[in-house]
Design a protein that fits this description.
The complex is a heterotrimer of chains A (291), B (242) and C (233). Chain A is an alpha/beta fold. Chain A contains twelve helices and twelve strands. Chain B is of the alpha/beta class and 242 residues long. Chain B has helices at 48-56, 95-105, 110-123, 139-151, 169-184, 196-202, 220-225, 230-237; strands at 10-19, 22-32, 37-41, 63-68, 74-75, 78-79, 81-84, 157-161, 188-192, 205-210, 213-219. The chains are: A alpha/beta (291), B alpha/beta (242), C mainly alpha (233).
């Protein structure tokens, strides 16, 4: 009888646990419907792996919450996917880095206006042995040409992310037609920046990375920065509100508060203050309206 | 009031049960009045177990009729016949819980269940084993519990399918004594058995089945003194018909 | 060297009592146990029903349920994602990227396991009990409560198998939960994140903690069901 009672107790506890979990979730949903009520105030931001993996959000969000009381839930995806999330109305704010794709997003009426936030730059990472012999070059087009000529392994994100789109643009700048010339040396993995770096490390391949992710990346192994400083490696981030006319549930006021804070002098200073080992990862440039 | 209405007599007419086109029970008919212990004997595959199951309603006849004096053997909304199997079916619970489960299935009130359960455990000498997991009891104890469990349901007719075939002589003897006691209290018993000694000891009436047919229906004493049919004679002699 | 670092990381995590880490463990357990509880609540009766009911197409249903045990978590996640997206049929509920969505996706993963194993166990047990139960009037679905109760210790295995699948998967919770720090980040999505950050020792350390947790839950359930099974015979 004792055993039976225990089993019953355990089952009851299990069910209560489940019910509690559900009740817990019901709260934010209710809040969303009636913003006047007390409860967790939050917005959902679709952003990129670079801003999340580099730790930038861990640095920014507590500051923002302290000031406004608004929680920010960040989904980290490639830029293409993050824009899709915004398009479907599954996020309130999109914070990404692929200017052309962002401008199309705004032009198509999915959200906006786009505000420039900050930049960093891309770096070409590769094995210290450097089979393509490009170390120290400041010409990214020449470096990519050398990689292609020597058919040295190159890992591509292949996931429509901002970095992937930037990479494709750089191949174009080097006048290399990937569709025609790519061979087994060019390896698309369809994954995030960290996975791409892990893969490149594993197969002694070259890979294009944003500097922030590289600086915070821990599993460098034999990898190092080989090419940097080319003007074409510039990487601009933009932020925009998802169109509340198209998706009425979008938290327009709180989302706008977040955007306004990010581009405000206070937010911009917070971005500039974020450093790893003394190195600044992102350079705030919201005031540069042309960026 | 409870026993004013009887489900008996049971009338079985032209009973046929076929599987795969082959009649396993083939036109059996008999009438079962109130009282006494009727034994079904016959070789393996003669249809003893099937006949019991058809009478108890576990199988639906291919044709023919099983007709109780009260429809389906039910009086006052309660089925008044029960069955005990060759290999006792013991639920994975204590002896007491096994009993209570059957009583609950009969829709009895909680207090009625408790009363009958205590009564049955006591009567069949199981009170000391009440909390034992039924499946860990000995074969004899399990069969005793199965009979007690059936008895607690207050059946007028109890069907038994070779209840002692897997038991040692001591346990067999115990079961036989219980069955005689039940018969003495007016319960009608119908039992299939392979044990000729047991049949001789217990039977008031014998139904001899052979290849799905009723070979002989006779009072026990004359039957065992000298069966009318050559098949029954041979069967009792212990050869040929096997 | 990475391995020893990982064990150190695991021990540090367990002993450190870091609230963020504890929240991740808590969420993992809450989501998975809720999914398993819901799947059990639905799957046990449904599995028993499938064991006892006879209807045209039953064989096909059994094959389908068995096959769904191998449903890729990513596909389960995608289904729930498409349902719950603001642009999907259940979008107005606003459940995407919440623990509820994760529970839903994992329930979808666990349910076929619970149904399939329950079906098999119940069918076997029913084979043994059928005549007695029919004799006392419990035919058809009225036999289900008896069968589920008597099969409870064996059925614990079905539940455990479901728990194992849910607690180990990352694909579904990542898609529908979004791996939001402090809100929908679980053990497995945290492991995926740390791996992509290149912090392999921490990732493996989290993995070790997850394995230990799973081990503990299995041991407790196994022990309880052994004791219970001995009691019930």
């Amino acid at each position: 009888m004792l055993t039976k009672r225990h089993l019953l107790g355990a089952t009851t506890a299990l069910l209560a646990f489940g019910a509690a979990a559900l009740a817990q979730d019901a709260r934010p949903a209710a809040t969303a419907a009636t913003p006047a009520q007390a409860g967790t105030r939050f917005i959902t931001v679709a952003s990129t792996t670079s801003t999340v993996d580099s730790g930038l959000f861990n640095h920014l969000l507590p500051l923002f919450r302290a000031k406004t009381g608004i929680d920010v839930r960040v989904i980290s995806q490639g830029t293409g996917q993050a824009l899709d999330t915004g398009r479907r109305g599954d996020a309130d704010v999109v914070f990404v880095h692929a200017r052309a794709a962002e401008e199309k997003f705004v032009a198509d009426g999915h959200g906006g206006p786009r505000r420039p936030v900050m930049y960093n730059d891309f770096v070409l990472i590769g094995p210290k042995s450097d089979p393509a012999g490009i170390k120290g070059s400041r010409d990214i087009a020449a470096a990519l040409t050398a990689i292609q000529t020597k058919a040295a392994p190159f890992v591509s994100r292949g996931d429509r992310s901002g970095t992937h789109q930037a990479e494709l643009a750089l191949w174009q700048a080097a006048r290399i037609d990937l569709a025609a010339t790519r061979g087994t040396w060019y390896r698309e993995i369809g994954q995030g920046m960290g996975a791409a770096l892990n893969t490149a490390g594993g197969m002694n391949a070259y890979v294009l990375s944003d500097r922030a992710t590289w600086l915070s990346f821990r599993n460098r192994g034999d990898l190092d920065i080989l090419v940097e400083g080319d003007r074409r490696l510039f990487n601009q981030y933009g932020i925009m509100l998802v169109n509340p006319q198209r998706h009425p549930h979008v938290k327009q006021a709180d989302g706008q508060t977040f955007i306004d804070w990010i581009v405000s002098p206070e937010g911009q200073k917070a971005i500039a203050d974020y450093k790893i080992n003394g190195q600044q990862l992102f350079f705030a440039n919201a005031s540069d309206t042309g960026a | 009031m409870r026993d004013t209405l009887s489900v008996l007599p049971l009338t079985v007419t032209d009973l046929v049960f076929a599987a795969g086109g082959r009649p396993l029970v083939d036109g059996i008919g008999f009438t079962l009045p109130k009282g006494g212990l009727t034994v079904l004997i016959g070789p393996n595959g003669s249809g003893k177990s099937l006949t019991l199951r058809l009478c108890h309603g576990l199988l639906t006849p291919t044709s023919g009729v099983v007709s109780w004096a009260a429809a389906d053997g039910v009086v006052g909304g309660v089925k008044r016949h029960a069955m005990v199997f060759q290999k006792p079916v013991m639920l994975r619970r204590s002896a007491r819980a096994n009993m209570l489960h059957a009583l609950a299935a009969f829709g009895l009130s909680r207090s009625e269940r408790a009363t009958r359960c205590a009564e049955a455990l006591e009567r069949f000498g199981l009170a000391g084993l009440a909390e034992r997991p039924a499946r860990l009891m000995s074969g004899g104890e399990q069969q005793r519990l199965a009979i007690a469990r059936a008895w607690a349901l207050r059946p007028q007719v109890l069907f038994l399918d070779e209840p002692t075939s897997q038991l040692d002589p001591g346990a067999t003897r115990q079961i036989e004594e219980m069955l005689m006691a039940l018969r003495g209290e007016g319960m009608t018993l119908v039992m299939a058995t392979h044990d000729m000694g047991q049949a001789r000891r217990l039977a008031d009436r014998v139904l001899f089945l052979n290849r799905g047919r009723l070979g002989e229906d006779a009072a026990a004493a004359p039957f065992f003194a000298g069966p009318a049919s050559p098949e029954a004679r041979a069967f009792i002699a212990g050869d040929l018909v096997w | 060297m990475d391995i020893s670092q990982s064990f150190a990381a695991a021990i540090g995590l367990i002993l450190g009592g870091d609230p963020a880490f504890l929240a991740i463990v808590g969420l993992s357990l809450t989501v998975t146990l809720s999914a398993v509880a819901i799947a059990a609540l639905i799957g046990l009766p449904l599995g028993a029903l499938l064991a006892l009911a006879r209807f045209p197409g039953r064989g096909a249903v059994i094959v389908l349920v068995n096959a769904l045990m191998g449903l890729p978590p990513v596909v389960a996640g995608l289904l729930v994602f498409l349902l719950l997206s603001r642009s999907g049929p259940l979008g107005p509920l606003g459940l995407l990227f919440t623990p509820t969505a994760m529970v839903a996706a994992q329930t979808l993963l666990v349910l076929p396991i619970v149904i399939a194993i329950t079906r098999q166990l119940t069918e076997d047990l029913h084979g043994e009990y059928r005549e007695h139960l029919a004799s006392i009037g419990l035919t058809g679905i009225s036999a289900i409560p008896t069968l589920l109760w008597d099969g409870r210790f064996a059925l614990a295995t079905a539940i455990l198998a479901g728990f194992g699948r849910a607690s180990a998967e990352v694909g579904a919770v990542l898609i529908v939960g979004g791996n939001i720090a402090g809100y929908t980040r679980t053990m497995t999505t945290a492991i995926a994140l740390e791996t992509s950050k290149g912090d392999l020792p921490l990732a493996l350390g989290l993995g070790i903690v997850l394995i230990l947790l799973t081990l503990a839950i299995n041991a407790v359930t196994y022990g309880a069901s052994r004791v219970g099974a001995r009691f019930a015979g």
